[in-house]
Specification:
This protein is α/β, with parallel strands linked by helices and 313 residues long. It has helices spanning 12-23, 40-53, 77-80, 102-112, 126-134, 138-141, 164-167, 170-178, 188-191, 198-206, 210-230, 238-247, 300-310; strands at residues 2-8, 26-33, 61-63, 118-121, 144-148, 183-186, 252-261, 272-274, 291-298. Helix 1 runs parallel beside helix 12 (238-247), helix 1 crosses helix 13 (300-310) and helix 4 crosses helix 5. The longest helix has 21 residues, at 210-230. The two termini are 22 Å apart.
Length: 313
């Protein structure tokens, strides 16, 4: 099993990432929650709810950053529903949140388990950026970080050029990219390849497994969000793909790029800008500051099967 700290802003695709991980070998050491899809207190409650539905009530959940480092709070209830779980009437867990200092908890756990933990970040990167400010040695203490974020060479989804998780806190994202660790950037250029086929949706809809039934309930709202884009009721699997690649990196091949986050552009703030020109030799050290690993070739069909397997579908 892979020991994971999941940093999330639990809406619909975060929930599916937790389900995917639980069914494919993730050992959740803790979940830390940030603002993003919904306000942090809503995301924390959703995280506890999903974990408890999966029988993972021993996994602590720590609330963290309630707003970005340098811009106003913006959330995305239109994508995830007012409750973050598709307004599907999911009964919220009443389990207590473990604490409200997520960044400090990330540092504590990394120090306690040096070299053992993989950070999977599927929300804005405020908690991770704060953890780096608290402990500059954090990259030495964890195995690596897999983050769902960015849109390298493709349009954004929160703005014309900005992907939501980076766009919600560009300063924090730049701190993460500038740190000397192996950053696997799972961006829209990759996640948009994961559109669920009708057959997969049918398997989820008809499965008697409680995990599939939960996912099917929260998916209805999400399918409606993507219907205008694809012309049919389907969705892509942003956060589940980041979780999948943290657990099974062999599902893809990768290349290294030098990259940074646009912080000042009037219309481009929050864009991940990678050097795609090919003039210079590509980087070879994934731990070089300002270097990210991005997906080249992805085995989409195997990923879909892993996702369905996690739900018994």
């Amino acid at each position: 099993m892979t020991a994971i700290i999941l940093d999330c802003d639990t809406g619909i695709d975060d929930s599916m990432a937790i389900v995917h991980g639980a069914g494919n070998g993730a050992r959740f050491v803790a979940c830390t929650v940030t603002h993003g899809n919904v306000p942090v207190h809503v995301g924390a409650r959703n995280t506890v709810t999903v974990l408890d539905l999966l029988g993972l009530s021993d996994v602590p959940v720590h609330a963290g950053a309630a707003r970005p480092m340098a811009q106003p709070l913006l959330t995305a209830e239109w994508v995830h529903g007012q409750d973050g779980l598709g307004d599907a009437g999911i009964q919220a867990s009443d389990r207590e949140i473990a604490g409200d200092l997520a960044a400090a908890e990330i540092v504590r756990l990394a120090r306690l388990h040096p070299g053992e933990l993989t950070v999977v970040a599927v929300g804005p990167l405020t908690n991770i950026g704060l953890a780096l400010l608290l402990e500059p040695r954090l990259p030495e203490l964890v195995r690596g970080i897999v983050l769902m974020g960015g849109a390298v060479g493709v349009p954004g989804n929160a703005s014309e050029l900005g992907e939501a998780n980076v766009w919600h806190d560009p300063e924090a994202a730049q701190l993460v990219i500038d740190a000397p660790w192996d950053v696997l950037l799972v961006g829209l250029e990759t996640t948009m390849r994961t559109v669920l086929p009708d057959e997969a949706l049918q398997r989820i809809a008809t499965s008697p497994d409680p995990r599939a039934q939960f996912v099917w309930r929260i998916l209805h709202h999400y399918l409606g969000v993507y219907e205008p884009m694809f012309g049919r009721r389907t969705c892509v699997l942003h956060d589940p793909l980041a979780m999948a690649l943290a657990l099974e990196p062999e599902l893809a091949t990768y290349r290294l790029l030098r990259a940074g986050v646009e912080l000042r552009g009037e219309r481009s703030r929050g864009q991940v800008v990678a050097d795609l020109r090919g003039f210079d030799a590509p980087p070879t050290d994934p731990h070089e500051p300002g270097v990210v690993r991005v997906v080249d070739v992805l085995d989409v069909s195997t990923f879909h099967e892993r996702f369905l397997r996690a739900m018994g579908a």
